[in-house]
Structures are given as structure tokens and as C-alpha cells.
LysR family transcriptional regulator (Caballeronia pedi), 302 residues
Amino acid sequence: MRPALPSLNALRAFEAAGRLGSFKEAAAELHVTHGAISQQVRLLEAWLGAPLFERHNRRVVLTPAARAYLAEIAPLFDQLAQATARYGLSEAVARTLNVNAPATFTLRWLVPRLEKFRARRPDVEVRVETSNEPVESLKDSYDIVIRGGPDTFYGYAMRPFLEEKRLPVCSPALLRRVPLRTPEDLRRHTLLHTSSLPRVWPDWLAQVDMPALMPSAALTFDHFYLTLQAAVDGLGIAMGPTALVADDLASGRLVAPFDGPRLPSRSYCTYVADEKIADDLIVQFRAWLEREGAAFASEPGV
């Protein structure tokens, strides 16, 4: 005889609320009311005979025991989705999600994380096309468009999901050849530019009170991912957005020679046509992006 189990709805509500740290966000993800999440959590607490959350005004915090419980049950939902997909039950509802995003963002931030979403929704084919065209200029209809922002476009709903700042980055090999201890030392280096971002270096130099500084040389590229690759290859120093160079900094391919300042930058946002904002798959993908953005923001050194 199998042991008794709590309600699956109660477990889903607990998993979402615990993962997101919010009953409100859990309700949005599961397409139910805030009250429904609260009720299901109370039912699970009654079934277990122990509290799961500590309530703090508008946020909730897992108890230590509940945190351990969540760590054990959360992977089971992914396993259930994967098993269902393998068995073929998801074929009837297979979906394609069409995403349009900037090339450098896609290559350096989205692609390394996309497998996490595919693990949650193996029944979904995510098709990503890259471009920098303004949202209102796109000729094809996409489910989600990712661009900088926040901006307002008629007929689109915007939500930010990832913040970043810019700071100088370069290869460690370059620093061994030509040390860089203060911004003044940039006079002995090559500054790397992107033609679509002409103000980045001048704005940062103004922040360190050196607007007239002249480097030994400059290189300009037409695509930002080429600028970052040139930095990795030791050709010079680039202004790297924290979100797009985090993996390179963590691996040691790039280093940040200065503690600051960090230049403010636009956030990454999702833009969805008004008629699609209630689509369940689009809601899930946006919520996933927002969780990944929040997780990135909590990483040390970001």
C-alpha cells in the first residue's frame, strides 16, 4: 500500500510560492488567485502539521525545514514534466515559442540558461531569432521580443527582467603585458568601441574626471559581440555589461581592473503584443526570465 500523499495542487502552490518567495507571483505563474495560493499552502501546512512560511508584510520566507522540503520536491515537478513528454502525452499540446532578441544578449546570457526552461517545458520548441530592430519595425509576429528599456510601444505590454551596469573589462594576459592600476593608465592601452554605442567610453571617462583622456589606440567594431571577443583575445579594453560578461569574469577569461565606477545601463525587457499577454506559455516564459534575472542580480559581485 502506497503511503498517503498531500494534494498535488497544494504541493504545486507551495513549490511556486517557495521558489518565488511570493504568494502573488506564485498566483500569477499558476493562473490562480492570491487567495487560492494561501488556501492551498494552509492545507499543506495542516496536512504536515507544521508551518511552511514566515509571513513578513508583503513577502514570505521559508522556514528552515520547509526549505529542505522544497529542495527535495522541486526537482520532482521537472521529472514529471519530462516523463510525460517522453511518454508522448504532450504531443497533442506541443507548442512553438517565437522569440526575437539582440544577438549578443542571446549568445552570452539567454542561450547558456535556456536549457533550464526546456527542462521545465520539454514539450515546447523555443525558436530564437536575433536582431536589433525596434519593436514596432519588426515585420514578423513574435510571441516575445526582448529589447532594452523600459520603453513604451503602442499595442505592447512591457516588463523588465534583467538589470545591468557597464564596467571596463579586459583579458588577464593584457594586464600582465601592460599593467592597469588606475584610470590614468588607460593612456597606454587600446580602447575597444562598438559603433552603435559611441557614448559608452566617453561617459565612463567623464565619471572618473578624465573626459579628455587619449588612449594609445582605439578599435571600433560594428557588432557588440565582436567588441567583447576582442577583449577576450587581448586586443584592448571594452566596456562590458555586467550581465553579458559575468560568465567570462567567473571563468577568468576577463577581469575587471577597477572596482568602479559602474556606468548605469538600460534594463532588458520583454515586449508582448496586447492580444498575447494572457497566453499561458508566454506568461510562463516571461516569469522564467524574471526569475533568472532575479537570480543573476543576487549573485556576488553583480
